[in-house]
Amino acid sequence: MGFVPALHEVQLPPELMLLIFLPLLLYWESLSTSLCEIRKNLTGIAAMSTLLVIATAAAVCCPR
Predict the structure, then answer these.
(1) Distances (CA, A) of 33 to 2, 16, 37, 55
(2) What is the rounded distance in angstroms from the CA atom of residue 51 to the CA atom of residue 43?
(3) Of 5, 19, 37, 47, which one is least surrounded by beta carbons within 10 A?
(4) Distance separating alpha carbons of residues 8 and 4, to the nearest angstrom
(5) How far is CA 13 from CA 8, 23, 28, 44, in A?
């Protein structure tokens, strides 16, 4: 939508992204990703998810 000149001023609230678009993307990926692919990349998935949760918690709780 940002590339269309007529829709330059359209703004979407963040809640709309979390409530509509994110669940749809996660659902589609759950249907299109194979279990073999998930098992093959399980260590990377677990490491990145753990580190990203810690980084997010540190960014939220630490004063700037």
Answers:
(1) 29, 25, 7, 26
(2) 12
(3) 5
(4) 7
(5) 15, 16, 22, 32
